[in-house]
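Protocol step 4 of 6: structure prediction from sequence.
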Amino acid sequence: MIGAYLTDNIVLHVSGGLDKYNEPLADTEINLKGKVKIGTALVKDIKGENVFSSMSVMLKSRTISHEDFLEYDGKEYAIISIAKPRDFSWGFMEVFLK
């Protein structure tokens, strides 16, 4: 049911990592539907420090890392925190962006 609210076009840029010579590999672009919520939130980053997030995106659950980034409305946003709410079993996640 909540999938009907995922109306915003998001591009996920998945980091390709490094090759055997420590050279960066090409990123992969994946087009997704999500729900963008613009607003300030205080969240913990990967280091455990409190930082402010300027927006969050609700997405269907998938593998996302902090090295990836999201593109929305022509702008690129770094991933600060990834939350998987456990209140329901509907398979969605909230990604906080900087």
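Step 5 (inspection) to follow. The first strand starts at residue 8 and ends at 14.
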